[in-house]
Structures are given as C-alpha cells and as structure tokens.
C-alpha cells in the first residue's frame, strides 16, 4: 500500500530528516522548517493508512430447545472499535462477545457488523441458530 504523507506546508528548503515509524503513525523531522523561527525545525506526524477489519464469529450452541442461551464469540481481525450484533429477531447487542437467550422457536440469521478507523465489514450467517419447541412434559406418577 502506498500513501503520500509529506505535509502540504513543507517548503523546498525544509530538509526532511529523521523518520520514525509506529504501528499507526509516521513521524518526519523537517530540520530547516522556518514556521516557528529561522531554521527552528518541525516534526510532522501522519496517520498511516491501514487495512479494513475482517469480520468472523462463532457461537455455541447453535441449536437446541427454547429457551436457548447462546454464547457468541467475535473472531474478527484488524483494528476494531465497535461491534453490532443482530440476532435476527429484532434484538441487537453492541458487546464484543455477547450471550443471548432466544425465547422464540425458529431459525435465525445472525449478522455481525464491525467498524474501525480503516473501515467496516458485515458478516451474516443465514439460518445460523435453530431453536426448537419443548416437547410435552411427562406427568409424574
């Protein structure tokens, strides 16, 4: 990936010097920058472009009788700052690893939307959770 990080206000005689590279930022020294006085120098910091996150998740259990309590686990990769889970029945969660109890019988599509400084991604798993009705209870004798 390429990106232009040279500051717009950089003059032709500002003499770029030392460079420091961090995980998310790049720092460039300009030894002859005159903005703060004759040859005072300056430090320019630029945020590095990154890759958008990749959404992934698992859950356990994915089927059973009502009420069914499911533990969802986010396995997404990249810089992530927010999570939005849609359990396919009108209920949502913003937790990273929610635990949700399905109270209705049915088959549910679960969707995870993740967002971070470099973008967002949506992953839907169709018919992911199957909740069955409880059978009739036997009467004690």
Biggest sheet character: 5 strands, mixed
Regarding CATH, which class of the largest domain? Mainly Beta
List the total number of helices.
0
Number of strands: 11
Stretches with pLDDT under 50, minimum 5 residues: none
Radius of gyration: 26 Å
H/E order of the elements?
EEEEEEEEEEE
Give the number of domains. 2
User: How far is it from the N-terminal to the C-terminal residue, by CA?
Assistant: 73 Å
Portion of residues in helices? under 10%
CATH superfamily of the largest domain: Immunoglobulins
Strand content: over 45%
CATH topology of the largest domain: Immunoglobulin-like
Shape: rod-shaped
CATH architecture of the largest domain: Sandwich
Spatial sequence of strands, sheet with the most strands: 5-11-10-7-8
Tell me the structural class.
mainly beta
Description:
The chain has no helices and eleven strands. With 141 residues, the protein is mainly β. It folds into two domains: 1-49, no CATH class; 57-132, Sandwich (Immunoglobulin-like), CATH 2.60.40.10. The radius of gyration is 26 Å and the shape is rod-shaped. It starts with 15 loop residues before the first strand and ends in a 9-residue tail after the last strand.
How would you concisely characterize the structure shown here?
0% of the residues lie in helices and 48% in strands. It has 141 residues and is mostly beta strands. It has two domains: 1-49, no CATH class; 57-132, Immunoglobulins (Immunoglobulin-like), CATH 2.60.40.
């Amino acid at each position: 990936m390429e990106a232009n990080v040279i500051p717009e206000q950089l003059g032709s005689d500002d003499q770029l010097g030392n460079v420091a590279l961090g995980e998310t930022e790049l720092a460039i020294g300009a030894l002859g920058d005159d903005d703060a006085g004759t040859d005072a120098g300056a430090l320019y910091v630029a945020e590095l472009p990154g890759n958008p996150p990749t959404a992934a998740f698992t859950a356990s259990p994915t089927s059973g009788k009502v009420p069914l309590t499911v533990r969802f686990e986010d396995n997404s990769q990249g810089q992530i700052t927010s999570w939005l889970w849609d359990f396919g029945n009108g209920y949502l969660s913003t937790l990273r690893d929610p635990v949700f109890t399905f109270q209705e019988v049915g088959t549910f599509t679960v969707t995870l939307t993740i967002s971070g400084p470099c973008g967002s991604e949506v992953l839907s798993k169709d018919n992911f959770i199957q909740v069955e009705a409880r059978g009739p209870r036997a009467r004690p004798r």
